[in-house]
């Protein structure tokens, strides 16, 4: 079992790092923290240097300043890479983390050698946008766990919830324990930035994977396909019978998909050997 001790950058970002080789950075979703990536850390660390960190306003990282925009979250990742002495990394972003990964790719393209966007949002319909804005209002009024039960129902299958009550309870507690202002700042960006610099997405030149679950109601297959169409050469993957939290619910499936992608993304990188999973 891999046991890790969290470290901090000079700016206060809390992160975990393990493994050797090409760096792969994992960015969690809104309301969660770096601990959501346990299954991926175990699966990827034998092959890569895996880094997971707490987004601004989450976990043990500092709260974002009032009015922080999406670029501020990309700058947090830049500071982490600088602290670790990494010139480039493959960035894997889940949900809100996918928005941060997209922003990082647009603002700091030279620091990226692969991009994976999992269960993220793009080009919401008016109905979808109204729903997430309503959830933002509820979070502003009642706190980070205002929508916990509805969120868990969207995120996980009923079978998984029934079979893993302790884990579901822990995630519910994670949601409830978020800093209210940090959570709200992040959720407002999640609710409004799905079309962030949409006209510049064609400038992304690294290998890109856009994946979601067939049954993900908030990060739909159509969103994944539309986003992939905007990024040159991007691969769109829709995983059958998977819901939003597929990295947690189906880690082996997601790890195999990521290993296949990482082999492709890093194939042209000098001195990188292909991983046989």
From TrEMBL:
Gene3D superfamilies xref list: alpha/beta hydrolase
Residue ranges of domain AB hydrolase-1 in the record: 23-250
Keyword Transit peptide attributed: no
Coiled-coil stretches noted in the UniProt entry, renumbered to this chain: none
Pfam families with a match to the protein in the record: Abhydrolase_1 (PF00561)
GO molecular function, one term: hydrolase activity
Swiss-Prot/TrEMBL keywords: Hydrolase
GO cellular component, one term: membrane
Keyword presence, Hydrolase: yes
Name of the protein in its database record: Alpha/beta fold hydrolase
The species this protein was found in: Pseudomonas cavernicola
């Amino acid at each position: 079992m891999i046991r890790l001790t969290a470290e901090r950058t000079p700016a206060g970002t809390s992160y975990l790092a393990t493994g050797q080789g090409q760096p792969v950075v994992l960015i969690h979703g809104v309301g969660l923290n770096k601990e959501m990536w346990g299954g991926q850390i175990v699966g990827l660390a034998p092959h890569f240097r895996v880094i997971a960190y707490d987004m601004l306003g989450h976990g043990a990282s500092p709260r974002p300043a009032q009015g922080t925009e999406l670029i501020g979250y990309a700058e947090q990742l830049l500071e982490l890479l600088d602290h670790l002495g990494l010139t480039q990394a493959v960035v894997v972003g889940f949900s809100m983390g996918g928005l941060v990964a997209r922003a990082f790719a647009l603002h700091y393209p030279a620091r990226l050698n692969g991009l994976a966007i999992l269960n993220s949002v793009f080009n919401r319909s008016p109905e979808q946008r109204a729903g997430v804005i309503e959830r933002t209002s509820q979070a502003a009024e009642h706190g980070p766990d205002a929508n916990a039960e509805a969120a868990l129902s969207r995120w996980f299958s009923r079978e998984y919830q029934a079979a893993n009550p302790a884990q579901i309870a822990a995630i519910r507690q994670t949601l409830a324990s978020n800093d209210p202002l940090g959570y709200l700042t992040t959720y407002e960006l999640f609710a409004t930035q799905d079309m962030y610099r949409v006209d510049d997405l064609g400038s992304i030149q690294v290998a890109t994977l856009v994946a979601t679950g067939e049954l993900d109601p908030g990060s739909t297959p159509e969103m994944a396909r539309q986003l992939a169409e905007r990024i040159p050469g991007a691969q769109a993957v829709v995983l059958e019978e998977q819901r939003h939290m597929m990295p947690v619910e189906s880690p082996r499936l997601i790890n195999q998909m990521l290993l296949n992608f990482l082999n492709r993304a890093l194939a042209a990188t000098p001195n990188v050997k292909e991983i046989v999973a």
